[in-house]
Structure formats: C-alpha cells, structure tokens
Amino acid sequence: MKRITTKLVRGHQVASGGNRDPRFPEGTIRMQIPHFAERGLDLSDWFPATLNLSLSPRGFELREANFTFREVDWHPTEPAEDFSFFACEVRSPETDDWFAGWVYYPHPETKPEHFQPDDLLEVMVERKLPGLAYGDPVELRADPHRIVWTEPEETQQG
Fold first, then answer.
1. Which of 26, 49, 59, 103 could form an S-S bond across to 30 if both were Cys, CB 3.0 to 4.6 Å?
2. 100 CB contacts (<8 Å, ≥6 apart)?
3. Whole-prediction pTM value?
4. How many Å separate Cα 20 from the centre of its chain?
5. Domains delineated in the chain
6. How far is CA 108 from CA 73, 90, 116, 144, in A?
7. Which helix (H) or strand (E) holds 38?
8. In Å, what is the CA distance from 66 to each residue of 15, 77, 108?
9. What are phi and psi of 124, to 5 degrees?
10. Which residues sit opposite 60 in a β-bridge?
C-alpha cells in the first residue's frame, strides 16, 4: 500500500445533500447506494457522503478499479452515469486508526455537472471520521496497482 497526505476541502455538497438541491433531497449517494448494491457493492451501512481530498500539487492515475458500473440509471430525470470504485483506507489526524474507504469516481464523460479538479479524489468511508474539519490533513493509502500518486511536472526554465 502506498500512502499520501491529502487535505480535506469543501466540495459541491451534492453527494451528502448539504447543498439542498431539490433534485437530490438526501444527497446523490443515498439515491445511488441501492443501484450499486444491485450490482454487487453494498454500501448501505457506509456514511452517505464523500470526503473531498485534494492531492495538490500532486495528481493521481486511476488504474484498476475494484468495481465499475456502466449506465447506472439512479435518478428519474438525470442521465445514467458510469461509476468506478477503488479500495483505499483513510486516517484522520485525530486517530491512529485506519478506516476502510472507496475512491468514488463518477466517470467525467458521463457526469452531467459538478465536476471535480484534476487533483481531487472523492472518498467514501465506512463511518464519519472523528474531529475532521476543512483544511485538515487526511492520510490516504491504496494499492499502487489500482491508484498511482503522480508528482507535479517540473517547471521548465528557459
């Protein structure tokens, strides 16, 4: 497992329902969970939101998903989307314990809105992490065959 320190940043708050969008009254994750379970990934007992983890200035390369679901028709009016999930673990500064997680990756080519920066991963965790606030460091580790952390390209001097 390869480890990286990330930073928790504020997201669109659509996954959790915190943005109060009437199309997703309890958040997109709660609406999507039954569809993922039908396809073999039961997240019904997991915290129904995502942590938005910035790797900046680093990036990432997603390689081998544990699960990929195509054309998930999870909403009555929104278009179907493709999703991939990559196993990971997270740890907050308040604890020495690692918690199971999934990098939650709605494929951008099928996602209609709420796009993420290239250096940000959305991560679902088994339960809400204690004492976590925006700006806090969060350690993330994953199998390097599934997710690779990339370094920023060096600026060319001329």
1. 26
2. 87, 89, 125, 126
3. 0.86
4. 20
5. 2-150 (2.40.30.30)
6. 16, 24, 9, 22
7. helix 28-38
8. 21, 28, 18
9. -90, 140
10. 149
Closest CA relative to residue 112, chosen from 67, 73, 85: 73
Nearest to 6 by CA among 108, 106, 109, 125: 125
pLDDT at 155: 37
Report, in this order, helix, strand and coil percent for the chain, each rounded to 5.
5, 35, 60
* pLDDT, tens only, 18-37: 556 666 667 788 889 999 99
CA dihedral of 94, 97, 98, 101, whole degrees rounded to 10: -70
pLDDT tens figures, 81-129? 999 999 999 998 777 889 999 999 999 888 655 546 688 999 999 988 8
Residues in the chain: 158
Q: How many CB atoms lie within 10 A of CB 126?
A: 15
Contact 12, 114 (CB under 8 A): yes
